[in-house]
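Work package 3, deliverable 3.1, input record:
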Amino acid sequence: MMAARAARAASGGSGTALRRSAAPLLAPGLLWISVVYVIPGALILVYSFLTPKLGGGVVWQATLDSWEEIVARGRRSDAGWGTVGAAALRGIATAAVAAVPTVAAARYLGRRISRGLGFAALLGALAAVNHLASAYNNYTAVFARSVVWSLWATVVCICLALPLAVFISSRSSPVTKNALLIAVMVSFWTSMLVRTYAIRFLLANTGPLNNLIEALGLDRVVFLNTRFAVILGLVYTALPFMILPLYAATERVERAQMEAARDLGARPPQVFADVFVPMVRPGLTVGVVMVFVLSVSQYLVPTLLGGGKTNMIANLLELQFGEAFNWPLGAAVAALFSVVTFAGLYLTVGRRDQEELL
Amino acid sequence: MIRRRPSRRFANLAIGSASVLVYVFFYVPVAVLVLFSFNQARTGGRWGGFTTEWYSALFDNDRLITAAQNSLLIAVVATAVAVVLGTMLSLAIDRRTFRGRTAAQQVVYLPVIAPEIVTGVALLAFFSLTLGRLNDLLGRGAQDALRMGRPTIIIAHVAFCTAFVALVVRSSLRTLDPSLEEAAQDLGANAWTTFWRVTLPSIMPGVLGGALLAFTLSLDNFVITFFVSGPGATTLPIEVFGQLRRTISPEVNAISTLIFGASTLLLVGALVVQSTVSRQRSQRIRPLSRQPRNRAAQARATQATHTQLEGQP
Amino acid sequence: MTTSTNKANRAVWLRLLAGLTAFAIIVAACGDDDDDSADATTTTVDSMPEAPTSEADAETPDADAEMPDAESPMSERCGDPDRLGDSINFLNWADYIDEAVLEMFEEECGVSVTMDTHVANEEAIAKVDAGNSGYSLVIVTDYAVEIMSSQGLLQELDMGEIPNAANIDPNQMDPYYDPGNVYSLPYQYSTTGLAFDETAFSTPPTSYSAIFDENSHCGSSSLLEDQREVLGAALVYLGYDWNEVSQAAHDEALDLVLESRDCVTGFDSANYIGNLASGEVLVAQSWGFAAGIAYLDNPNIRYIIPEEGGTIWQDNFLIPADAPDPYTAHVLINYMLEPDIGALITEFTIGYTPNLTVPPLLSDGYYEVIAGAGLELTDDIRERLVWQVRSEEHSIFAETWSEVIAAG
C-alpha cells in the first residue's frame, strides 16, 4: 500500500493536484496550533532578553541579564575541581555498583558482557552529570532533578504497565479486555487535582497508610513531601499513558514466535529479551516519551505532594513568573528547558522511533 | 511441557498479582474521595458518620455549579472544533504529499510535548499583547474591551485538543487501506462523497476516541486555563485549586464522586453496547478490514465499497 | 516497507482509545442533558431568598434589615440607581468572603456580582497588568497596592461615593503602601505568627526557635510557602530587620532555613490549616485568620506573635484604572463597609475588621474563637508587628528563596 501511495505521489499530474489540495485541509489546524504554541513560544524567547518589571511583565529594554544568571555559577555552588572530582568519583561508583546487576542480566539474557558494562557506564555518566548539574547552580540543579525523577517515574511505569498489559492481552474474551481497559480509563476521568489530594491524605503522617504501618508494630514513615511522594504522584498521573500503548503493542505480539523460541530451547528471560521486547518496542517508545514528557514538566504533583520542599522545574518557573516578578528569567529558564527537552528527545529517540511517534 | 508448567503458573501468578496491585493503586485514591463525600466530618482525617448533606449542599453551591458549567461548555466547544480541525490535519498529513510534511507533523506534535506551564505563561503574554493592540485598533474602551475569558480558554484548549485528535485519527487512517477510497473514486464518487461515505465511517472509532480524549484533557486542564482565564470564566479545576487554600470542601468530593459515577456508568454502558454491537458489526465489516493483497481481493473490496455506498442512506 | 508493521503497531494504542470509547460519546450526549437539567434545578434552588450563610450570622441584624429593603424598590445603600450598572466583575482572594454578601447585594441593589478568585497577589497583579481585565473591583494585600499604583494600574477612589469610609479605624488608614488612601481602602487585616497545638507543648512556644532551632517537634512543623514570610521570620530570628536586604543577612537566613528544612514537613500555605486541625502538624508558621479556622476544628490550637516579631498585613479594595464600571465598584465598596455586611464578612474570614461599626455586631462565636485561639490584637502585640515592604531592592528575597526551592 505504501508503494501504491508512492507511485501516486510520483506520477506528475495527480501529484500536483494532491499537493494543491493539502493546503485547505492543513491550514486551519496548523495555523491554530501555531498561533497558540509557536508564536507565544517565540514571544517567550524574546522576553528572556528583556528587563524584568516589578509586579510582573517586562520592560522593553534589551539585556542579557537573565541568560547570564542562568549560565553563571550559583551563589552557593561548590567551586572548582573538587566538585568535578566528586562527580567523577560518583559516576565511577555508580557504574561499579550498577555493573553487578547489568552484567549479570546480560549474562542471563545471553547478551554480550560489554552491553551490560556499557549500560552501567551510561548510568555512571548520568550520575556524574547529575552531580555536576546539582552543584553548578539552582537552575541546573532543579532541572537535573526533574529529569532524574521523571526517569524514575518512567522506569516504575514500565514495571507496572508491562505485567498489566500482558495480563489484559492474555484474556481471551474481548469484553473482559475492554472492561479491564475501561477500568484504567475511568479513574483517569476524575479530576486529577482531587485524586492527588486524596493521595495526600493517604500518605500523611497521621494518614491510613501510616496507621497501618503503626498497627503492624513499625515506626511511622514520612512519605509526604518527599521525593518518594512526588515520584509516586508522577507515576500515578502518567501510568495510563504507558499502559495503553504497551497494551496495544502486546496485543500484537505473536505468541507463536514466543512458543517457537521456547521450543527451540530459549530460556524464558531470553524469550523475553530477544522476542518479546523487540515486538513491543514501538509501544514502549511511545509510552516512555509520553510518561517522561508529562512528568518532567509537572506542576501540580510537586506542588501538592512535594509541599514546597521537593520542587521540580515547573515550581521554579512559577516562582519567577509569580512572587519573584522576574518574567525574563522565567522565560529564559522556560526556553532553555524546552530546547533541552526537545533536543534530548530528538537525540535519544532513534530515527525509526521518531516516525512511530509522529 | 511438564517441566515448563510450574514456572509458567508462577509467571501468571506474578503477572496477575502485579495487575491487581496496579488497579488497587488506581482506585484507592478514588475510593478515598468517594468515602469523604459521605463523611460528616468537614475536615478529612476522621470519620464523622455517614451523610448525604454535601450532595444537597452541592446544589446550593453556585460557584461549583457555575465552574462545572464553564468546564463543560469549554470542553464541548473545544472538542467540537478540535475534532474537525484534527481530522482535517490528519487527512492532510496521511493522505496528501506536500513539501514540509515533516515540519507540519512536528508542529502537530508540539502541544503534546510542550511543558504546560511554559505554554500558559507564553499565552498570557501573547493574549495581553494582542488583545491590547486589538482594543486600540477597534477603539474599544474599558467598557466593551475584548478580554480574556472563555474565548481565550477555548482558543488554547482547541490547540492541544486538535493535536491529540489528529494523532488518534491519523492512527486510524494508517490502518485504513487507501485503495478503498481509490475504489470509491473509480466508481465515480467525488472527493467529498468518498470522504463522507467511505473514509469517515471507517475512521469513526478514531474520531470518537480522539473526541473523548480531547474532552477529558480539556475538562481536566488546570495550568494553561489558569493563565488564560478571565472574569466569570472560572473552571472546575481552578475553583478546586482555590479551595485548597483552606481545606478542600466536601462538596468538591461530592461533585467528583458524581463525575466519577457518571463516567463509570457511561463507560460501562458503552462496554455493554459495544459488546453487543461489535458482534453484529463484525459480521458486516469483516470483509473490509482485511487488507486485500491480490486482484481478487481488490475486486471484492471494490464490491464491498460499492455495497456500502449504495447501502448507506 | 519495513516500517509499516511498526506504524500499524503504534497505531493500535491510539485506536484503542477509540475502540474503547467510541460508543461512550453517544451516551455522553445523554449524560450532558442530565447535567443540564440538574443545573436548572439548582438555579431555582439558588434563587430562593434563603441563601446559605455561615452559622454565626443568625444573630447579625441583617435578617431584620434585609426584608424591608427587599420590598422597597431600591435600598439607599445602593447609590444612584441611574448610574448603577447591572453587573460587576470582582476579583477576590479565594475563600475570603461569605457568598451571602454577594447574594444580598444582588437582591438589594439588583447588581449581579461575578466573583473570581486568585490565590496570590502576583496573580491578581498579572491579570490587571495584562490590561482590560474586566474587573471593576479587586482585593489584594498591602504591598501589591503599592506596586499597582506605582505602575498606574489603579484609579483614585472617590471618597464622596464611599461615605462609609468614615467608619474605618484610623489605625488602619493612611498605610505606608498608599499614603492618604488615594487608591485603596482596607477590607480585612490580620497578622502572621505561629500557631501550635497546646497539648503538644509543656511550655507554650514564644519564639521562632520552636521551628528554627529547638525543634522539639521535628517532622511536625511547617513554614508558609511564602518567600517574604519565611525569610522574614528567619531574618528577625537572627536579629535583622524583617525587610532586610543585605547579602550577608540573607546568606545567614538561607543557612538557617536550609538547616531547619529537614525538620519542617513542608513549605505550605494551604494544607497546614487542615494539618493543624488533624494533628499532622503541631507547630506552624501561620496567618492569624487561619489559626482561627484551625481552632474551629481543633480547640487546642493557639496563636502567638513570637517575641522576635511578626507581620501585620491588610487586604484592600481597589479599582483598576481600566475598570469597566468604577461607579458600581464604589457602591459595592461602600456596601461592604456597611456594619451588618462587614460583620458577615469578618465572621467568615475570622480576620480583623478595620470597620469600627462592626465589632458590636460580631457574634459571641467570633469572640470565642478570637479569645480562645489567642488572636486578640493588643497594643503590646501591635508593637511587635511590622509591615512587609516590597520594592526593586527586595528582589534579593526571590534570589534567596530560589535557593530554598532548589535545595533537593
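Strands of chain A lie at 51-52, 58-59.
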